[in-house]
Design brief:
222 residues; alpha+beta; four-stranded mixed β-sheet
């Protein structure tokens, strides 16, 4: 991609330029309507405590369990997430980093387009990162999946101006495979967008209370 005389720095700027000018060899991106169709079937809010889940993921990933059933039989750490409307995105990252590869820029842009569609504006979303089983430790993969979910959140917020209040990133690493039968499958590296809850309504601003009337001074006696 050609650059102007100005220095182009930062992943957000590069992403915006790629979306405007197009990227050679870009992967086939889903349409906005494809994504909206997957996410607009909200019925009830997810009952998952996201901060607590982050701690559970790291604790389980670090644990040295002698009777660990192995990746094929490892139970999902948050099975209730499967009940939420979900879009699975094939986002390519540089190896072992949260850096988004240029061929995935258009997919991220389409996700942003979907999130500002009228039917999805009332909702908040989870950005869920996963990593396929590999030579690295489960702890390292849990950290990497969180960094990748954070990276997608940051691009959606900084480049596409999606409200940060509507996005919660969570990395599940190897603790919830998308294809448990094939832990090393690239399918397990996909990123998920899940419709999580309704955007909380802001409480109406209360007018400032009127100051109390000043107490009357007693009349002087003559």
């Amino acid at each position: 991609m050609r650059t102007t005389g100005h220095t182009i720095a930062g992943i957000s700027i590069a992403l915006g330029l790629a979306l405007l000018t197009g990227t050679a060899g870009a992967q086939t991106a889903p349409t906005r309507d494809d994504i909206v169709g997957k996410l607009n079937h909200f019925e009830e809010a997810g009952e998952v405590d996201i901060p607590a889940l982050k701690l559970q993921v790291m604790e389980r990933a670090k644990a040295r369990i002698k009777n660990d059933p192995g990746p094929v039989n490892r139970p999902p750490i948050a099975p209730d997430l499967a009940k939420l409307p979900t879009f699975n995105a094939q986002i390519q990252f540089d190896a072992d980093t949260p850096i988004i590869q240029p061929e995935s820029y258009q997919t991220v842009g389409r996700i942003a387009d979907a999130l500002v569609h009228a039917s999805l504006l009332p909702y908040t979303f989870l950005i869920v990162g996963h990593v396929e089983s590999n030579q690295k430790t489960r702890e390292a993969n849990a950290i990497l999946s969180q960094r990748r979910a954070d990276a997608i959140r940051d691009v959606l917020v900084n480049t596409f101006k999606i409200s940060t209040k509507r996005l919660q990133p969570i990395g599940l690493g190897e603790e919830q495979f998308l294809d448990r039968a094939k832990p090393t499958s690239a399918l397990n590296g996909q990123l998920q967008i899940l419709t999580f809850a309704k955007v909380p309504e802001e409480a109406p601003a209360h007018p400032a209370a009127a100051p109390a009337p000043a107490a009357k001074k007693p009349a002087k006696k003559h």
